[in-house]
Amino acid sequence: MLELFDADLRSVTFPERSVLSSSAENGFRLKPLPEVRRRLDSTRARLLVLKPLVESQYTPTWLDGLENSYAVWMYRRPENVAASDLNYFGGGNGERNLRLLLWNDPPNWRGEVVPETTRSILARHYRPEMDPHDAAALFWWARTSLFFDLRLDERPDVRLCSYERLVNDPAQAMRSLYEFVGVAYPEQDITRGVHLGSARRKDEFQLSREVRRLCEELWERLESVGSGRG
Fold first, then answer.
1. By CB neighbour count within 10 A (0-12 exposed, 13-18 middle, 19+ buried), where does 52 fall?
2. How many angstroms separate the CA atoms of 141 and 145, rounded?
3. What is the CATH number of the domain that holds 175?
4. Which domain holds residue 116?
5. Which of the 8 DSSP states describes residue 67?
6. What's the pTM value of the predicted model, to 2 decimals?
7. How many structural domains compose the chain?
8. What is the pLDDT along the chain (230 residues), one digit of tens a residue?
9. Torsion-angle region of 44 (φ positive above 0: left; ψ -120 to 50: alpha; else: beta)
10. Pair 14, 2: CB distance under 8 Å
């Protein structure tokens, strides 16, 4: 999505690591809100787009602190997210993410703003030797649950966006998002580089029954809010 917005000549985009980033946690954390606000205020563009991936837990704070701002929360099938996570970061990454979330040692973004109910459920399932895909899917469940934990579904300045729908019909999905933020859709084609393959992938593994149930319940809840809105 960031690449699609970046193709709009009227926009300035800030990826996960950018001039807005601090040195904390490998450069993925944003600088304090006042510094980010000053930098954005000095940037002349019709559309400013940030990808503060590890700051999702502070979405309300950023929205309230940045004038005329909106949040787009993208969600994707948990099985595909788990497979992508393990393929990219290694087979132990799901377990590592859960461990850092549960014990917050050292202090890190995963362990911030996590409800005790989420911690309790994760602690019940967590084992150092647990199935890697179960671990990665549980981390997806914990992070994605924040959308409802933070009551973002009740905010008019937040929009869900299905990854699968974006890939299958990028022009329609992006037109909906431009309408949401109140900016005219660009004249140039910004979606030509989108390929369907990633949305159609089938991953060859099975989640355990309880993990699958948690993920499916959350997925259905997301779909009930996001269906028809991008």
1. buried
2. 6
3. 3.40.50
4. 2-226
5. T
6. 0.93
7. 1
8. 999 999 999 999 999 999 999 999 999 999 999 999 999 999 999 999 999 989 999 999 999 999 999 999 999 999 999 999 999 999 999 999 999 999 999 999 999 999 999 999 999 999 999 999 999 999 999 999 999 999 999 999 999 999 999 999 999 999 999 999 999 999 999 998 887 665 555 566 889 999 999 999 999 999 999 874 54
9. beta
10. no
